[in-house]
Amino acid sequence: MPFQSPADGVLLPPYRILDLTGPEGVFCGKLLADYGAEVIKVEPPSGDSTRQRPPFIGDDPSSEQSSYFLFYNTNKKSVTVDLEKPEGRDLFKKLIVSADVLIESFPVGYLKSLGLDFDSIQPGNPGLIMASITPFGQTGPWKDYKSTDLIALAASGFMQITGDPDGPPLRQGNEQSHFPGSQHAATAIMGALFYRDMQGGSGQYIDVSMQEAMITYYTDAHPALAWMQRGENVTRVGTNSTLVIPLGAYPSKDGWISAGIITPREWENLSQWMYEVTGNEEILNDDYKGGNQDRAPFNDIITALVIDFTTRFTSDELFHQGQERNLVFIPVNAVSDLLNDPQLDSSNFWFDLEHSEVGTLKYPLGVFDSEEVSPLTKSAPHLGQDNEAIFSELGLSESELATLRNQGAI
Amino acid sequence: MADQKKPLAGVRILELGPYVALPLTGRILASLGAEVIKVETNKVLDEMNFIPAWSRGGGQPEFQRSKKRITIDVRTPGGLEVFKELVKVSDVFMTNFRRNILDRWGIDFPELRRLRQDIILMWQTGLGGIGPYYTYKSYGILVQHMGGVSLMSGQEGEPPATINTSYSDYHTGVFQPVAIMGALLRRRLTGQPATMESSIFKSGALTAGPAILDYQSNGRMPPRIGNRDPHFAPHGVYQCQGDDRWCAIAVQNEDQWSSFCQVIGNPGWCKEDVFATLKSRQANQDRLDELIGEWTLSLDAEDVMTRLQEAGVPASVVSQGQDLYESDHLKARGFYQSTPYYLADRGNPAYQWERLEGIAGANPPKMSETPMDFGHYSNIGEDNDYVFKEILGMSQVEVDRFTENQSLY
Lengths: 410, 409
What we know:
heterodimer; A: about 400 residues; alpha/beta; Rossmann fold; formyl-coa transferase, domain 3; six-stranded parallel beta sheet; three-stranded antiparallel beta sheet; about 35% helix; B: about 400 residues; 17 helices
C-alpha cells in the first residue's frame, strides 16, 4: 500500500487497520485509532457482542450505549461482514487487499478454518501485517485453553501479588487484562510498519500471548527469578508493606491516602510533623529513626500512630502539605476525583467526544501531551455506519451491496 | 546484513532516567533494533539495582538489556558537555526527570532542540511534567493509587487492594514506544519533530476504563466486589491443596455451567434450583463458592485447571513463581531466557561488580519477519569506549581526562 503522511496535528498516517478483536485485543485498535490510524472494526451483522454489555449510558440497555463499547472503540469506523458466509469472506478478502494491518483475537485456528489465516491471505497483500492477541499465544500446550479477565490475571500471576496475605489472591477491578497484550501488540505493529515502510521490508505475522504480556507488567516483583534463586514464591503483602515502614494506604478524614517513607530524612520530616499535630511524643522515639527497614519491628505501633495522624486530615490536605515537607502522600483517587483533577485538566488528557445518542462525555485519550500532535476525537461508531463508503471504495456497486445485504453477508 | 531485519535500524535514542517506565520504553525500542544509549552514573545508582532486594541487580536485564550503557555525570560541566554532544547525534531524547531537576543540571528542552533541530523529545514524569503538580515528588508504587483502579479493587467492605508492583509504570513504558515510533514515522514523512509529555498518573488513569463513562452517565462508582463479576457466576479463586495454592474459575454461560457440574461429578447441589440460572447463582454466590471450595480443597490446583479446561471451562492456577519458572507452556514458547547480570554494590563502581547468571522474560510479541532481539545485557559503563570514541570520536586522552575528573563516571 502506498501510504500517506499524517494529517496536520495528527501523529500517525491513516494506516488502514482491520480490527476483528474481542476483549483480548480491543484496546490495541483503539490506541492506534486515537492517534490517527484508520481503524475499521469488522463486526458480524448482528453487531459486536460488547455493544450489549452493561453498564449502559443512562442505564438504558439499548444497543450502542454500552459504556464498555464506547470506551474501547473510540475513533474506529464500523463495517459489518459475516465471515461465516462465503459471500462475506469474499468481501472480507477484498477488504484485506486494501489494508495495512489486521488484528484478531479469535480462538487459535478459527481463522484458518475459514481460509483467512495469515498464510492464506498474505499472498494477496504482501505488505500485510497481521497480529493475533490471544490468551496463551498461537503455540504451546495451553494454546487452546479458554480464558477471561480473571483467568488471565491468575495465569500471569498478577493475582498472586494482589491483596492481603491472609486472604485470597484478588482481581483488579478495571479488567486489567485488556491492556498489556494490546499495548505490546501495538508496539510490534508500529515496529512492523516502520520496517515495511522505512526499511523496505515486507509484511509479517505477530503472535502475542496475553499471559506473557501480563507477566512483563510486574517484573519488579520477578517471581520466576525469586523461585530460581531462592526457592521462594513471591506473595501478597496487603495494603501496608511489611518491608518499608510506613508505606501503604491509610484512612484519612474523607477517604484513603497512600504514603511512602523511604529515606531517613523523610522519616525525620514525618515524625516531626506528626508530633506537631498529635502532641504524642512516642513518634519521636529514637528506636524508630533511621532507614525504612529499621522500623520493621515497630510496624504495628507506627502504623497505629500514622493512622491517628492521617485521619485528622483530608486526603487532599495530606497530598499538598506533604509535598511542602518533602513527603510523598498520594491520594487514593476515585473515578470522580480523576474527572476533577487539576493536573489531568492541565495536560490535554480529557477530550469531549460527542455521540449522536449519548451526547457529550469526557474520555481519557491523552496518554501523552504534545503541542504538535493530538488524539482524534470521534466517539465509537454505529453498527455498520461505514459500510457504504468503504465497500463502494472497494468497487462494489449499489446493486452488489444490496445483494450482499439480502444474503445477510453485511 | 543483520541490520536489514531490524525495524528501527539506524535510529539512535538517548535515554536519561531510572526506575521502570522509561527504561522499559528504551528496552522495547532497542529490541526493535534502535541503538539506545543509556546514560547513568556510578555515583547515584538506579534504585532498581536493589529491587527486588534479594537479587541486587537480577531484575535489571528486564529493563536495561539490548542497550549501550555509558556513565556520564550530567551534573558536572564536563559530563554535561559530552551529554550535549550525544544529543547532536541522536534522533530521540527521553528522560523522566522533573523540570526543577533538569533546570538545576542545565538541561533545557529548547536548547536541546537548538543542538539538534529535528530531535524527538519524550518527557515522562510520575505525576506530570507540566501543570500544578509538576514539582511534586512521587513513588511509582504509590502512583498506582492515583489512577482510580485501587478503589475498585478488593473485597467488599475492605480497604482497597494494593498490588505489590508499580504496575502503572508498565502501562507508561509500553505506551511510549508507540508514541516515539509514531513520531519517528511522522518526522520522516513531514520533516517535523515532536515533543511529547507523558506521566504514570495519566497512563494509570486511562486504565480506569469504562467506569469513567459510567460515572459521568449514571453517577455510579465502581464497587469493590472481590473476584466476582457482574456477568458471570461462579467466578472466583478457590483454595486448593498445598501452601497458598489457588485456582481461578470463571463460568461464562449455561453450557460451561453444565460442563463444570459434570467435571465435579454432578453432585446433588448442582441441580438445585438456586443454582439453575446465572441470576440465581449470583444471588446464592456465598453458598456456591463454599461448595466449590470444598471440591477444590482436596485437589492440586493444576489438576483442577486441567480437568476444567479439558471440559472447556475457563480455569487457571493462580501462578506462583515456581509455576511460571517451570511452566511447560512458557518453556515451549521460549519465554524465560538466561541472561547475565551484575551484583549491585553501592560501595564500588559497576565494573567491579560480580557477574552472575539470571533470567529475564522475552519480548512478548513474536514477530515472524523481524524477531525482537532478546539482546546482550551490558553492565553500567560497559559501552563507554564504543560510545565516546566510536560515536563521538573522542580521543583516549580526552576520555581518560573526563573519567579521572569523574565527569564520565
